[in-house]
Each structure stands twice: as C-alpha cells, then as structure tokens.
Amino acid sequence: MSLKNGKIATILNHDQHKDQYGAVVPPIYQNSLFTFESWDDIDNAFDDKSENFIYSRLLNPTAKITEDKIAKIAGGEKAKLCASGIAAISSAILHCVSAGDHIITVNNIYGPSNNFICKYLKDKFNITSSFIDGTNIEEFEKHIHPNTSLIYLESPSSLNFELQDLEAVAKIAKKHHIKTVIDNTWASPIFQKPLTLGIDIEVHSVSKYLCGHSDVVAGVIISNKKLLDEILLAEHELLGAKIAPFEAWLILRSLRTLKIRMLAHQQTAITVANYLDKHPKVKKVNYPGLPHFEQFDLAKKQMSGFSGLLSFVLDTKDIEKIKLFVNKLELFKLGVSWGGHDSLVYAPIISYLKELKPEQFKAMNITEGLIRISIGLEDADDLINDLEEALVLI
Fold first, then answer.
1. Of the candidates 255, 272, 298, which is a domain's last residue?
2. What is the Cα–Cα distance from 334 to 353, expressed in whole angstroms?
3. Which of 10, 146, 270, 374 has minimal CB crowding within 10 Å?
C-alpha cells in the first residue's frame, strides 16, 4: 500500500525519507548551509529557492519532512514552519495586505493577533480593520470595503469559542477577490480542515497541539503551493522567522501521537465540561462539544471533533474569590499557553486589560469570572476533584 493513500494515523507515523543507514527516525540536519559539487549545481539551485536546500533559514531537510507531514494531514499542498505562532500569523497577514488596505476579522481572536491587526498595522501602514461578531454571515458582507484585502478568522475563537461558517465566509471572500486566513490551532488538522472548505491560508501555533509537550515554541503556515512559495520567498525569507532543525525534529516526534492525543484531550474535556455545566458555582460553560452550545450544529458540520480547551464563567465577580479559586488548583497549573500534556488554568482578566483597550475588552464579552482551562492528558476524575476542591471557595 502507498503512504500517499494512507489515513491520518498512518501518515503521522511514517516518514517519506530514505536514510542510507536505515534509521527509523529521520536525522537532525543541524547545519546552516548546503554545499554543491559545481558552479552549475548551485546556479540551478538558485533558480528555484523554494525547492532546493541552499541555506537553512529558508529550507532544511528536517524541517521539510515535518512540513510535508503537516501539509498532508491538513489537506494543503505545502507548509512552512516558523519560529512561533505569531510569526506564522503575522507573515500570513502581511502577505495578504498592502498599505492602506482594510481587514475584516472577529472580536475574540488571539490577543497578539488583535494587537498586530488593529494597532501595529494601523500605526505603520494605515491598514484599517473591522472587528465583527462573526457568528452572523451577513456581517462579513456588510463590512466589505473597496480596499478590503483580507478576512482573518479564528474558529472557534479565543475564550468564548464562537464559530464562523468557514465555507460560507470563503464563498463571500472569493466573490469579492479577498484572501482568507484562519488560525486553526484550537481544532488542529485532526478535527478541522479549513483548506478543504475554501479557506486560502491556515496557520497554527505549533506550540499547542501539533507539538503538545510544552517544550517547543513554533508556528506553521499551510496553503496551496503557489501561495506558500510566495510567502516563503517574501515574508518568511526576508523576516527570518525560521524554525531550528532540532525544534522541527521535536515537532516530528510529537506528530506521531497527535491523533491519539487529540482523541484523549477530547474525551476528558467533554467529561470535565459536563461536570462544570452542572455545577452550581458555574454560570456558563463555553465549549463547542456540548450539545446545548449555541452553534453545536455548525460545529458538527465543519469539525469532526473537539479539543481540550474550554472556558467557564464563575458565579462571582469578586476578584479575591477568583484568586482563591485559581490559587487552590494543584493539577491545573497557572500559565498562559495550552494544548500540552499538562492541564493549565488562566484568568484572562490578568493580562487582557493590559493588552487591550477597554472597549476591545468589552467587545470580546469577557467578564472578571471567565476562566480558561486546557485539559491535558491526566485522569478525568483527578481533574474534576481538583476543580471541586477549588470551587467550594467561590
């Protein structure tokens, strides 16, 4: 059987790489440059820098093996690893806009993405933006300007996990010749494939599920070959946000368990979400995997599963009680990231008022009692017991 026709679990666990010694794990090509036998050889390589190994800032064999695997499972033609998630996000956005353009995006996107769009691009390039709810497809069409060049999506969005109808947005964008970019970190390519729904570019914080071991900071851009090569030879090469070979190798290691990790995250998250949903000290649970989630039907339509990141609202706005709750948790460690094997807790009120303007904070529908948790790979009963001991303090 050809690996080309293999299913995701098979693709993740086999590498299209032939080692001269028969090594089952591809080696780390820990080198900065690649040499050539002759003038003609290197001259020919420069004719197509997107496909030839010349300098590891642009292409490296270890990174390429990993990139090819990610592209394959996402339904894309090509992928490029970057030094961080925000490096992938900013590179993808920059490729789609020019000075004076307009961007449509949704309210609850990742904080640094928000700042990059509404502050950095505005101050440096006079690029304006419209932040919309995103759950109403008509809002996208309504906010298109003559200079709109990009619709930037995050589905589910950060903190409240609202969805956008990806197929419908893609159709509107194509009708108006507008590029689309989505941050698909929450679902991972295991549970959602936006490129197959018509989205142009997909980005991930690889630090989250794709790596999943809390030991790598990285990002990835996935698209068709034409678009990806354009980004590769412009934003990626010129801004220099490359991935190191060792980090690429660690990501390759992690991809082998991606599917079984995502299934485990999902199973435990649903159990914890149902527990929280019934708890008297919890006002609301935000998790697309709950049947009464407002967009559950859309979630089932465009996703094949649900990850381990969710939020809930405590039945209090008393900051001191919220601090007691967070500090009481033991298995849920207090930290800003998510998607790893370890369970984490974060109260967005800690940093969002420092990063966002008050009107932006209000538009994101965030309250003092909103708590985000990332479900790791621990036992579900132990995580519930940890939450129960902390919730009695509310």
1. 255
2. 18
3. 146
Over residues 257-261, mean pLDDT: 98
Q: How many CA atoms lie within 13 A of 294 on its CB side?
A: 11
Among 106, 116, 92, which Cα is nearest to 157's?
A: 106
Q: Which of 49, 55, 57, 253 is labelled catalytic?
A: 57
**What CATH code is carried by the domain that includes residue 373?**
3.90.1150.10
Same domain, 314 and 343: yes
> Considering the chain, what is the average pLDDT of its residues?
94
Per-residue pLDDT tens digits for 158-182: 899 999 999 999 999 999 999 999 9
Question: Can you say whether residue 388 is alpha, beta or left, with left for phi > 0 and alpha for psi between -120 and 50 degrees?
Answer: alpha
Q: Examine the pLDDT at 100 and tell me if it is beyond 90.
A: yes
Q: Which two tokens stand for residue 45?
A: 């390589």
Tell me which of 29, 64, 110, 165 is the catalytic residue: 110
Q: Please indicate, yes or no, whether residues 100 and 205 belong to a single structural domain of this protein.
A: yes
DSSP code of residue 244:
P
> What confidence score (pLDDT) does residue 23 get?
85
Residue 208 is a catalytic residue: yes
Q: Rounded mean pLDDT of 351-357?
A: 68
**DSSP string for 42-101:** HHHHHTTTTTS-SBTTT--HHHHHHHHHHHHHHT-SEEEEESSHHHHHHHHHHHH--TT-
Domain boundaries, position 386? 258-391
Query: Which of 101, 183, 200, 342 is an active site residue?
Result: 183
Whether 110 is catalytic: yes
- Give me the catalytic one of 64, 80, 179, 208: 208
280 DSSP 8-state letter: T
Which secondary structure element, helix H or strand E, spans residue 262, and what is its range?
helix 258-277
Neighbours of 168 (CB within 10 A): 17
CA atoms within 13 A on the CB side of 281: 15
Cβ 350 vs Cβ 287: under 8 Å: no
Domain end point (choices 229, 255, 281): 255
The answer to whether the CB of 109 falls within 8 A of the CB of 157 is yes
